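Sequence in, structure out.
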Amino acid sequence: MKTINAIIGAVMIMGTLQAFELGKTDMEIFHVRENVRAATELGQYLNKVYGRKYTLRKFTEADRTKPGIFVGVRPEGVKLDVDEKKEFCGRHVTDTQLYLFGNRGMKLHGTNFSVYDFLERECGVRWLWPGELGTVAEPQKPKQIKNGTEIVVPFFVRRLSTSFHYGYPTLQPEDLKALLEWQAHRKIGTSFFGSMAHAFEGLMPRQKYGKEHPEYYSLVTPEQWIGEPKPDKPTRRNDWTRKGPWQLCTSNKDVRRIIAEKIAADKSGAARSISPNDGFGFCECSECLKQDGKPRPPREYGVKDLTNRMYDFAEDIANQVHKLNPNAKVGMFAYSFFDGVPDKKIHFPGNMYLSFCYMVSFMSEEEQQELEQRTIGLSATGAKIFGREYWGTHYTMNYPLSHSRKIDRNMKLLHRCGAAGIGGEPGGAFAPRATDLYILTKLSWDPTLKREDILHDFCNSAFGPKAGPVMYEMFEKIEDWTEKTTNHFADHRGPNYKYYDNLYAARNRAMADCYNDDFQKMCDGYLSKASKLAGTPERRARIAYIRRGTKYAAITTAWLNACADLAAIGINMSLTQPSDKEIRMEKKNLIGVVSQAIKAAKVRIRYVQQNGNQNALSKGYIMESLGRPWKIYAEKAALDLSANRFNYLVNGAFEYSGYSWKMSGAKGAELTTTRKYNHDADDNYMVQRHAGQGISLQADLPAGSSAELVNSRKICPDEPQKVNLKMFVKCDADPLKYMTVKFGPAVLQGIPLPADAEDGSGWREIRFKQAEIPAGEHTFQIQFKNNGSGKITLNLDDLVLRMKEANR
């Protein structure tokens, strides 16, 4: 925060005490109408702390000469050299009067923040986490407040506003009320209004422009097309009836003109966003590709680095908007595929606001240094930078992923670069993340504070002078434990990362490795020791509150491991890597794996239901949304097993690329997995949810060549079975001429389909005659052979092998 000395008027304020006596006698609190709530809270807290009576009075001009505390009232004779359009906190002290004031009006909360800042700095009140248990207001001795005037202006004009909104709808009314009050007490707020969020959908909806102007929308190749049916050539995403991610053609001059005119027409003074839609589907037309400039390393799933094109787009629109309306503001994410620094020098005309997105929790030292360079580089464009961090929510699974050292480093970086604000997605789970969130909010108000001092204050305030140092040591140990994983993330991202290189899934695997039984034992030791030293029931209750979060780590690890086992038996588990277990593919055994996953999910749900009050854990939101319907997957697998509809082919849709398959070729034949073509028979969360493009197996067979595909997981029925097989194949010729399908001792006979029996995308569903196999261990394999004179290419997807007992 910045502290400004106010200019006192011609009449100097003199007195014998040179200080205001607080807590020595009963006192009146005078307030203006809009600050009655802040004045009421002030009186209540002062009563708890000093045991005196504080009577509220509505302020009138006749009260100016009376002794007391004035809330929302400006002192006479004090000139304030401060921007009234930005939040500030004012304090003016004389021998007999204390003024707490700030911005006038309801949109800026300077007066409220002045009250809360005073209670925290002068009266020892702490709001550690939402609710009564997280509030500390212990008795204090009367004190003197030194005479003078102080104006405090926060360094960041936007501090975490809207950051805690994930999970609001799932909170009980009392918990939501407590969370909102905590945010106010932590001085979370903003003097900046507007959006930098995903905006293409709202700016140029396909329903309005798509039919007449397909050129406004992204041209997408089959390799990057997500959703069915997939075209076999580059196609515009202008059809609003077709599912799948889409973007605008950002090189199109009319697109830029329309967007600039819409933003310039807004006279509200708030920023309007020009950010792309979330996810994939970016334009691959020649003009957009030209703007990408010299080649940069590709991003996830082969997507180009789009930084250069997006800043060409943003700079042009910002300049157009500035000419049309110099007061209009433009906002944009610096995010995902375009979070870099552009190659050419960018000159924004002072109206651009960039929300720079990153996640420091899993950054190595090298990556942290690179982040610093990007932050400095983006600041040099003339844009005003807002840091946007992913501290929690669905990214950290409610684990106690303490990384306040990195938060501290990042906040000080933003401060050095003159950033305008900080925000993001911290989540609402305070039992595992209380210290991080407390430190975060303190630094967002004043990034020059020392992290260690904040943590010491938190521990001593929450747990007392004896237990506080023990808890401090535990939180530092948790931070050390976390750094073992996050600073060496590549060593913990899982054995099957090569098959499914999704960063969400890799982080899940790393956290499950990190927060293991040894971690739980460490935390239990510290918590038990601190509980014995706490001294009061309230302090012990706070330690028990923190224990909820550390125990939840064990529950989450068990659940993630169970989900990884589900992936290992062939279920497409979005954002989940398969475990490295060699699970026997036998029905009773599979039922056990599925049952264990359902049980682990129920344990987690029950624990959250029983321990999620007081904002301890994020109820209902943390897993079931954002592409993680894992419990539903387990329940569906249980139903499929009971109804003999389970697919025994592990990774039959190839969404884990070559996982569980052995591929070989002879005489030039090659088997590979590809994103160029795919057939997703179901609503494939593996593809849709930040997970990349769908995959199929591709067999390239030159004349005279052969290849073999073998599922490495043997299928092990304990009694004779009837077998049914189906698959989808894309091939210009009859695919059955080039494939021999075997399962155990049986050669499965394909049922020929007419040439026009495909769905418009070139894929044909092929079924095979039912066969019977004995009990035992059986291998599934496909042999490919091209006896013709020309090259043949086949694509296979959604292979499903089902079995049921032959004698039932």
